[in-house]
Amino acid sequence: MDDIDRKILAELQANGRLSLTDLGERIGLSLSPCHRRVRALEEAGVIADYRANIDPAAVGLSFSAIVFVTLRSTDRAAVKAFEDAVPQVPEIIQAQRLFGDPDFMLHVITTDLAAYQKLYDYSLSTLPSVQRLSSTLVMKNIVQNRPLPL
Protein backbone atom coordinates (compact mmCIF):
# COMPACT_ATOMS: atom_id res chain seq x y z
CA MET A 1 0.00 0.00 0.00
CA ASP A 2 1.44 3.34 -1.03
CA ASP A 3 0.51 6.99 -0.49
CA ILE A 4 -1.94 6.97 -3.40
CA ASP A 5 -3.81 4.00 -1.95
CA ARG A 6 -3.97 5.80 1.41
CA LYS A 7 -5.37 8.90 -0.31
CA ILE A 8 -8.00 6.75 -2.04
CA LEU A 9 -8.99 5.20 1.27
CA ALA A 10 -9.15 8.56 3.04
CA GLU A 11 -11.38 10.02 0.33
CA LEU A 12 -13.70 6.99 0.30
CA GLN A 13 -13.98 7.06 4.10
CA ALA A 14 -15.06 10.69 3.88
CA ASN A 15 -17.51 10.03 1.04
CA GLY A 16 -18.12 6.46 -0.13
CA ARG A 17 -20.45 7.72 -2.88
CA LEU A 18 -17.71 9.48 -4.85
CA SER A 19 -17.69 8.49 -8.48
CA LEU A 20 -14.42 7.04 -9.73
CA THR A 21 -14.02 10.14 -11.91
CA ASP A 22 -14.36 12.48 -8.92
CA LEU A 23 -12.14 10.26 -6.79
CA GLY A 24 -9.46 10.27 -9.49
CA GLU A 25 -9.59 14.06 -9.74
CA ARG A 26 -9.23 14.46 -5.97
CA ILE A 27 -6.14 12.26 -5.79
CA GLY A 28 -4.61 13.15 -9.14
CA LEU A 29 -5.24 9.96 -11.14
CA SER A 30 -7.09 9.37 -14.38
CA LEU A 31 -10.14 7.10 -14.38
CA SER A 32 -8.52 3.79 -15.42
CA PRO A 33 -5.66 3.70 -12.88
CA CYS A 34 -8.01 4.93 -10.16
CA HIS A 35 -10.49 2.17 -10.97
CA ARG A 36 -7.74 -0.48 -10.98
CA ARG A 37 -6.49 0.65 -7.57
CA VAL A 38 -9.96 0.73 -6.01
CA ARG A 39 -10.72 -2.73 -7.41
CA ALA A 40 -7.38 -4.05 -6.06
CA LEU A 41 -8.16 -2.59 -2.62
CA GLU A 42 -11.58 -4.27 -2.69
CA GLU A 43 -10.18 -7.63 -3.82
CA ALA A 44 -7.47 -7.52 -1.15
CA GLY A 45 -10.15 -6.95 1.51
CA VAL A 46 -8.81 -3.52 2.46
CA ILE A 47 -12.16 -2.04 1.45
CA ALA A 48 -14.59 -4.41 3.12
CA ASP A 49 -17.89 -2.89 2.00
CA TYR A 50 -19.87 0.26 1.27
CA ARG A 51 -22.89 1.35 3.27
CA ALA A 52 -24.97 4.28 4.39
CA ASN A 53 -24.16 5.69 7.83
CA ILE A 54 -27.59 5.97 9.47
CA ASP A 55 -28.41 8.11 12.49
CA PRO A 56 -29.86 5.60 15.00
CA ALA A 57 -32.15 8.14 16.66
CA ALA A 58 -33.65 9.08 13.27
CA VAL A 59 -34.91 5.50 12.90
CA GLY A 60 -36.14 5.15 16.47
CA LEU A 61 -33.08 3.45 17.98
CA SER A 62 -32.29 5.88 20.76
CA PHE A 63 -31.26 3.53 23.58
CA SER A 64 -27.78 2.03 23.67
CA ALA A 65 -25.84 0.01 26.17
CA ILE A 66 -22.46 -1.59 26.50
CA VAL A 67 -22.75 -5.09 27.88
CA PHE A 68 -19.77 -6.85 29.44
CA VAL A 69 -20.01 -10.64 29.27
CA THR A 70 -18.20 -13.17 31.40
CA LEU A 71 -18.45 -16.78 30.26
CA ARG A 72 -18.71 -19.79 32.56
CA SER A 73 -15.89 -21.41 30.64
CA THR A 74 -13.44 -20.04 28.11
CA ASP A 75 -12.56 -23.34 26.48
CA ARG A 76 -12.57 -23.39 22.71
CA ALA A 77 -16.05 -24.92 22.38
CA ALA A 78 -17.69 -22.43 24.77
CA VAL A 79 -16.08 -19.42 23.10
CA LYS A 80 -17.00 -20.68 19.63
CA ALA A 81 -20.60 -21.33 20.64
CA PHE A 82 -20.89 -17.82 22.07
CA GLU A 83 -19.20 -16.21 19.06
CA ASP A 84 -21.45 -18.14 16.67
CA ALA A 85 -24.60 -17.05 18.53
CA VAL A 86 -23.81 -13.32 18.85
CA PRO A 87 -24.29 -12.44 15.14
CA GLN A 88 -27.81 -13.91 15.35
CA VAL A 89 -28.87 -11.01 17.63
CA PRO A 90 -29.40 -7.98 15.34
CA GLU A 91 -29.45 -5.51 18.23
CA ILE A 92 -25.77 -6.30 18.88
CA ILE A 93 -24.10 -3.82 16.55
CA GLN A 94 -20.54 -4.51 17.66
CA ALA A 95 -18.95 -7.33 19.63
CA GLN A 96 -15.38 -7.60 20.82
CA ARG A 97 -13.51 -10.37 22.59
CA LEU A 98 -11.33 -9.03 25.38
CA PHE A 99 -8.26 -10.19 27.24
CA GLY A 100 -8.87 -10.85 30.92
CA ASP A 101 -12.17 -10.33 32.67
CA PRO A 102 -14.75 -9.71 31.26
CA ASP A 103 -14.48 -11.92 28.20
CA PHE A 104 -16.55 -9.88 25.73
CA MET A 105 -17.90 -6.38 25.22
CA LEU A 106 -21.12 -5.98 23.27
CA HIS A 107 -22.51 -2.72 21.91
CA VAL A 108 -26.29 -3.00 21.88
CA ILE A 109 -28.93 -0.66 20.47
CA THR A 110 -32.70 -0.74 20.96
CA THR A 111 -35.69 1.60 20.83
CA ASP A 112 -35.99 2.14 24.58
CA LEU A 113 -35.36 0.70 28.04
CA ALA A 114 -38.32 -1.70 27.84
CA ALA A 115 -37.01 -3.15 24.57
CA TYR A 116 -33.54 -3.46 26.11
CA GLN A 117 -34.92 -5.27 29.16
CA LYS A 118 -36.75 -7.75 26.89
CA LEU A 119 -33.58 -8.26 24.82
CA TYR A 120 -31.54 -8.74 28.00
CA ASP A 121 -33.98 -11.27 29.49
CA TYR A 122 -34.76 -13.29 26.37
CA SER A 123 -31.65 -13.04 24.18
CA LEU A 124 -28.52 -11.78 25.90
CA SER A 125 -28.86 -13.84 29.08
CA THR A 126 -29.59 -16.97 27.05
CA LEU A 127 -26.48 -16.77 24.87
CA PRO A 128 -24.33 -19.92 25.24
CA SER A 129 -22.06 -20.18 28.29
CA VAL A 130 -23.00 -16.81 29.78
CA GLN A 131 -22.17 -16.64 33.46
CA ARG A 132 -22.57 -12.91 34.06
CA LEU A 133 -23.76 -9.83 32.18
CA SER A 134 -22.97 -6.31 33.29
CA SER A 135 -24.55 -3.38 31.49
CA THR A 136 -23.46 0.22 31.23
CA LEU A 137 -25.94 2.58 29.66
CA VAL A 138 -24.63 5.03 27.09
CA MET A 139 -25.46 8.61 28.04
CA LYS A 140 -24.11 10.31 24.91
CA ASN A 141 -22.00 9.43 21.88
CA ILE A 142 -19.02 11.74 21.57
CA VAL A 143 -17.09 10.01 18.75
CA GLN A 144 -18.82 7.49 16.54
CA ASN A 145 -17.97 5.91 13.18
CA ARG A 146 -14.78 7.92 12.95
CA PRO A 147 -12.70 7.32 9.81
CA LEU A 148 -9.42 5.48 10.35
CA PRO A 149 -6.44 7.82 10.75
CA LEU A 150 -4.74 7.16 7.43
From TrEMBL:
Matching PROSITE patterns, A to Z? HTH_ASNC_1, HTH_ASNC_2
Supply the alphabetized keyword list.
DNA-binding, Transcription, Transcription regulation
**Superkingdom of origin organism:** Bacteria
Give an example GO molecular function: sequence-specific DNA binding
The UniProt entry, under InterPro entries, shows:
ArsR-like_HTH (IPR011991), AsnC-type_HTH_dom (IPR000485), Dimeric_a/b-barrel (IPR011008), Tscrpt_reg_AsnC-like (IPR019888), Tscrpt_reg_AsnC/Lrp_C (IPR019887), Tscrpt_reg_HTH_AsnC-type_CS (IPR019885), WH-like_DNA-bd_sf (IPR036388), WH_DNA-bd_sf (IPR036390)
Q: Where is the HTH asnC-type domain?
A: 1-62
One Gene Ontology cellular component annotation held by this UniProt entry: cytosol
- What Gene Ontology terms for biological process does this UniProt record contain? regulation of DNA-templated transcription; response to amino acid
Q: What is this protein called?
A: Lrp/AsnC family transcriptional regulator
Q: Which organism is it from?
A: Achromobacter deleyi
Lineage of the native species? Bacteria, Pseudomonadati, Pseudomonadota, Betaproteobacteria, Burkholderiales
